[in-house]
Design goal:
Blueprint: H1 2-28, H2 32-59, H3 63-74, H4 76-102
């Protein structure tokens, strides 16, 4: 289950870096509903990772896995902040893409 949490974490970080570009592309094509759907997926993955984080804190007993979990928990707030900034940038880029489309 820890491997699944680490995989979800990697997927979220990938989405954080790609999401602003996707916002611009969605703005150019005037696809706000696609951006809203993608935003919901990213937020759901983040909530799932936080649930795994709390659940694994109760379940793990081995020292090696506990070290991995502590590393995952150490950047929890960075992940939440990065998701928030990425979503904000995506919507800003969406507006910029719509302006480019209008010109």
């Amino acid at each position: 289950m820890l491997d699944l949490a680490l995989g979800i974490s990697a997927l979220i970080w990938f989405c954080v870096f790609v999401f602003p570009v996707y916002g611009f592309v969605a703005g150019r094509r005037d696809r706000a509903e696609h951006l809203k759907r993608a935003q919901g997926i990213v937020l759901s993955l983040t909530a799932l990772l936080l649930l795994f984080d709390f659940t694994l804190g109760v379940m793990i007993n081995e020292d090696a896995e506990m070290a991995e979990l502590e590393r995952l928990q150490s950047y929890r707030w960075w992940l939440i902040g990065a998701v928030a900034v990425s979503l904000g940038l995506a919507w800003a880029m969406f507006g910029l893409g719509q302006k480019k489309r209008a010109n």
